[in-house]
Amino acid sequence: MQYSDGHDGRCVIGLLMSFYGWDGKDDLDAVKRLLAALAELKDAGIDEGLLIDLNDSGYTFDEIANYLDRVE
User: I need a surface site. Which of 14, 38, 44, 51 has the fewest CB within 10 A?
Assistant: First the structure.
């Protein structure tokens, strides 16, 4: 239920938010970055729910990145 572990570790959605400039701290700007990331995913035809499920079921960063590479 967190985008960051507080030690610079991120879940898949936290990583996407970081791509859009999130610094790992909870603030209002994080919400804006999340919405931007989710909009980009939707535009690319990527289901963010699936990414969350992959992350929560133990897929590694590389495995999720490979999935994203295949989708694009």
Answer: 44
